[in-house]
Fold this sequence. Notes:
- It is built from no helices and 20 strands.
- By secondary structure, the protein is an all-beta fold.
- The radius of gyration is 20 Å and the shape is globular.
Amino acid sequence: RKFYINSKGEKVITLPKDIYESRPFNEGIAVVSKQLDEHETKFGRDISTLGYRFAYINLKGDCVSDFVFEDADDIVNGFARFRQGTKFGLVNNKGEVIVKPTFNNIGNFNNGMAAVDVNGKYGYINTEGVLVIKPQFDYAYDFTEGLAGVWVKGKYGFINASGTIAIEPAFEQIKPFAEGKAAVLKDGKWG
Length: 191
């Protein structure tokens, strides 16, 4: 059986026997999974495949969500991405679904926004799941220090929190801003 210990080495949470994987706690919540056989009928035959379902537990070891997620990320900045089928949604740090699985991809929340893929174009949602920057970019990175990298017509540039181009797309590759600076590749040279 899997279990969690405290800093004194004492068992504080013992997980049920059917828990296959348990991850570290982040912001008071952890991802756990169960292994299960999935059955479906294809071409007139019953097919059984090994699958997993994920859920979230709190610091007491209580499930705060059902085992309904086909994949689940750890909580980052109060939110976690999960997948059902081919679409992604979000849960908060209480395990509550706050954005139903409607997006092709979702980034991490920074500056109160996360990049989302809507039919191959990227935009940004707020913490309620509302689109605040319409999907218009070919690719988009998470916000750092108030700016986010975006791919526009074959080049990378940066937008601000209102979605306005802050640094024109002129780069072959970019790295996120840190301490007021971002590494960029232009004409085959990093600067």
